[in-house]
């Protein structure tokens, strides 16, 4: 612990690095594989575009709301820190526990599993090697993040730029060479069951998720009170524009009925039609890079939550998990611990199912954070804010409404999963009290991060 008084996180990430992390962490495979699902639920191309816009708008309200909190608490840990400061240590712990033990590892494992399928198809590997490919790629990206944060940030910038190449190709082809109308085409085959606009919005919200993770790096961003709100807001806006243009391009390129029939193969089909067999390969490379970039953002950010919790003495092996390497200034043991949890999930569980279970609890904590904006303003009425949520209180109310919509939808569609997610979070309660009591002195001494000033 004495060494930790001398070693601190490097505060050297600028706006472009933060922006790349926001965009790169949001854009994974969702925009490529959810086109048919959103269209099926929306019932028509017009409503499909509106669903993507509505999902983006709700995400922007969420981002603008969190940006006000982030500007007041620019520390490593993001949502975990916000919950602790607003509602107390136990609520902060539970939000962090859920993210580092279940949600974060499950999301990384899901990305690894899907990436392994794409890599196997691309190179012709037998599917029996998929588990090893998934673990190998995750470990490789994890090793990169054991070095200085500038390497992970640079990798995020590179992968974000690379993933925009196939996105741009789809947009350009649809805009200039598509011969379909992007508006007013209904799905005749599924017209009787389609038209659930709310479900369509829900599908897009999942594609927008991940924007808040950059806040976990609050202690490593230059002038975070200013740059964090900028990165969150501009990043979400950029993704919204990209998603709308991609969807518009897809609707211009292929009739709605054909998109429905093709399902997740809609965009590969468009690439093959537009650019031939080579186009399909290029698109596959683009999706692979997109997933790797998204994975990098998550592997870079989730261990920071574990590190922040360990700094407060709230986890088993806190002394080890709060260790920063003296040269790289990165939480190497927290990163390794996250990779171990991810590997165990890939081998012994269904990571996709676990990530779905945690969506409910993530949005419960989102609602609490959004309400926290009102609480902070009430507690500090005369405080001068570096960033204030625009159109207050309308913006946070919309953010709360959007999150409640996700929560209610999850309860209606998957009550057993919701109850399971409660159990997963509740497991953390006895751990919190045990570790708090066991490390009372360390916890008291480190109740505030000393290396954030």
UniProtKB/TrEMBL annotation:
A molecular function GO annotation: L-amino acid transmembrane transporter activity
Intracellular or extracellular location(s): Membrane
Spans traversing the lipid bilayer: 12-33, 49-70, 91-117, 129-147, 154-177, 197-219, 231-251, 282-307, 328-348, 354-376, 388-409, 415-434
Database matches in InterPro entries: AA/rel_permease1, AminoAcid_Transporter
Chief location of this protein within or outside the cell: membrane
Keywords assigned by UniProt, alphabetized: Membrane, Transmembrane, Transmembrane helix
GO-annotated cellular components: membrane
Presence of keyword Disulfide bond: no
Entry membrane topology: Multi-pass membrane protein
Name of the protein this chain belongs to: Serine threonine exchanger SteT
Organism from which the protein derives: Lentilactobacillus kisonensis DSM 19906 = JCM 15041
């Amino acid at each position: 612990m004495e060494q930790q008084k001398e070693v601190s996180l490097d505060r050297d990430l600028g706006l472009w690095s933060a922006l790349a992390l926001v965009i790169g962490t949001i854009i994974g495979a969702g925009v490529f594989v959810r086109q048919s699902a959103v269209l099926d639920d929306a019932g028509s191309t017009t409503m499909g575009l509106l669903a993507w816009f509505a999902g983006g708008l709700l995400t922007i309200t969420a981002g603008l709301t969190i940006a006000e909190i982030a500007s007041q608490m620019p520390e490593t840990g993001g949502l975990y820190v916000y919950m602790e400061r607003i509602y107390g240590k136990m609520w902060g712990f539970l939000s962090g526990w859920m993210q580092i033990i279940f949600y974060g590892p499950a999301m990384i494992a899901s990305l690894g599993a899907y990436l392994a399928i794409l890599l196997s198809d691309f190179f012709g590997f037998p599917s029996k090697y998929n588990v090893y490919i998934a673990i190998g790629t995750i470990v490789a990206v994890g090793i990169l993040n054991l070095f200085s944060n500038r390497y992970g940030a640079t990798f995020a910038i590179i992968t974000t730029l690379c993933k925009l190449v196939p996105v741009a190709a789809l947009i350009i082809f649809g805009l200039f060479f598509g011969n379909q109308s992007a508006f007013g085409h209904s799905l005749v085959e599924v017209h009787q069951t389609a038209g659930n606009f709310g479900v369509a919005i829900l599908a897009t919200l999942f594609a927008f998720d991940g924007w808040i993770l950059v806040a976990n790096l609050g202690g490593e961003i230059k002038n975070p009170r200013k740059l964090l709100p900028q990165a969150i807001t501009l990043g979400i806006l950029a993704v919204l524009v990209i998603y709308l243009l991609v969807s518009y391009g897809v609707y211009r390129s292929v009739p709605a009925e054909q998109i429905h029939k093709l399902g997740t193969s809609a965009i590969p089909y468009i690439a093959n039609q537009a650019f031939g067999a080579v186009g399909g390969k290029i698109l596959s490379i683009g999706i692979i890079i997109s997933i790797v970039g998204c994975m990098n953002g998550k592997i870079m950010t989730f261990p920071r939550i574990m590190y922040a919790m360990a700094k407060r003495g709230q986890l088993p092996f806190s002394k080890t998990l709060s260790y920063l390497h003296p040269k790289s200034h990165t939480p190497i043991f927290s990163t390794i611990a996250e990779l171990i949890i991810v590997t165990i999930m890939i081998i012994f569980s269904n990571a996709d199912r676990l990530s779905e279970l945690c969506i409910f609890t993530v949005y419960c904590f989102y609602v609490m954070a959004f309400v926290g904006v009102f609480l902070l303003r009430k507690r500090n009425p005369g405080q001068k804010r570096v960033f204030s949520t625009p159109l207050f209180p309308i913006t946070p109310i919309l953010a709360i409404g959007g999150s409640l919509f996700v929560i209610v939808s999850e309860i209606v569609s998957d009550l057993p999963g919701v109850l399971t997610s409660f159990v997963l979070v509740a497991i953390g309660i006895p751990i919190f009290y045990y570790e708090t009591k066991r490390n009372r002195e360390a916890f008291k001494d480190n109740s505030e991060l000393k290396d954030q000033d």
